[in-house]
């Protein structure tokens, strides 16, 4: 029995429900485990969770996992309110979010699930922008550069059409910190990443940024730009993202409510399954797996949090 319902037609604001269970983080009892797990957050991480749940639901129909994609900021708001068990994030948790959780008495655990490279893309017909450095990106997204000629005197005097995720996205926060030095982004903003992709496709002078998998899904219609960091300019590839040589590489996260993780066997199974997968679902979704040792370290951490395998724990308690 497989239950899978995808609600909504856009990536942002969509929510998917799947019956699922599995993984070594919990009891390993599989079909005997029942329960419900709720999450929300990053539309970048969303496709990874969806791929995981496709696998999850095939064998274990008795746990329902629901996950919305209201953006990293929106996901943390729900996590802080206590209405969700986990929050998906495309950036690390902020100090003010930590403080709000502390004020509510909510402890959390951070799990890294994959790596991503924020991809800078221009229109496919753009034949002059092959690479940019962070200073040039800042010129474009601060509004200082109005035309391509302002960025590079050898480029045409044509008005730049810059597109950006809105403030609900962790990608926006990441770009603001990494490129803008926390300055304002002056661009056409949208909550729906698919709209940003389409806008770049439809505007010959367009430029936009988004998670790597959005580029992968549309690379026949977009042109990825090499980004110069501390060393030579690199384009986003699975290799350059994983080894960090691509200047806009980042980690992707799932934050779990510690108490709910300890109390909810279904939740233990879900997180255990994510870590057991070792990034295969992330690769299927167009992202990049972390080094295997990272997943192993987090599996050990999960066992410490939950008291190890539930069956082993029960046996030890019976012996006392």
Automatic annotation (TrEMBL):
Its main location: membrane. Residues 29-39, 309-320 have a biased composition (Basic and acidic residues). PROSITE patterns: PROKAR_LIPOPROTEIN. It is found in: Cell membrane. Residues 33-277 form the PBP domain. Belongs to the PstS family. The complex is composed of two ATP-binding proteins (PstB), two transmembrane proteins (PstC and PstA) and a solute-binding protein (PstS). This is Phosphate-binding protein. The gene is pstS.
């Amino acid at each position: 029995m497989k239950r899978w319902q995808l609600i909504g037609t856009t990536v942002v604001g969509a929510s998917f429900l799947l019956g699922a269970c599995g993984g070594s983080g919990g009891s390993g009892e599989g079909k005997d485990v029942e329960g419900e797990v709720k999450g929300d957050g990053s539309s970048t991480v969303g496709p990874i969770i969806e791929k995981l749940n496709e696998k999850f639901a095939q064998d274990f129909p008795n746990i329902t996992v629901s996950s919305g994609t209201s953006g990293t900021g929106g996901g943390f708001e729900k996590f802080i309110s206590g209405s969700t068990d986990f929050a998906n994030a495309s950036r690390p948790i902020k100090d003010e979010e930590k403080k709000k959780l502390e004020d509510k008495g909510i402890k959390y655990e951070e799990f890294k699930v994959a790596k991503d490279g924020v991809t800078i893309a221009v229109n496919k017909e753009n034949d002059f922008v092959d690479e940019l450095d962070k200073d040039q990106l800042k010129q474009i997204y601060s509004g200082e550069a109005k035309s391509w000629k302002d960025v590079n005197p050898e480029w045409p005097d044509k008005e730049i059409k810059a597109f950006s995720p809105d403030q609900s996205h962790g990608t926006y926060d990441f770009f603001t910190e990494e490129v803008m030095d926390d300055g304002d982004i002056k661009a056409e903003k949208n909550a729906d990443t698919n709209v940003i992709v389409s806008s770049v496709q439809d505007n010959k002078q367009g430029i936009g940024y988004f998670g790597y998998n959005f580029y992968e899904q549309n690379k026949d219609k977009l042109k990825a730009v090499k980004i110069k960091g501390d060393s030579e300019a690199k384009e986003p590839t699975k290799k350059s993202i994983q080894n960090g040589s691509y200047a806009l590489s980042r980690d992707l996260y799932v934050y779990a409510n510690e108490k709910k993780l300890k109390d909810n066997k279904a939740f233990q199974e879900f997180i255990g399954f994510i870590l057991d997968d070792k990034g295969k679902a992330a690769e299927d979704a167009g992202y990049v797996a972390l080094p295997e040792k990272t997943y192993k370290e987090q599996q050990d951490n999960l066992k410490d949090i939950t008291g190890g395998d539930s069956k082993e724990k029960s046996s030890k308690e019976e012996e006392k």
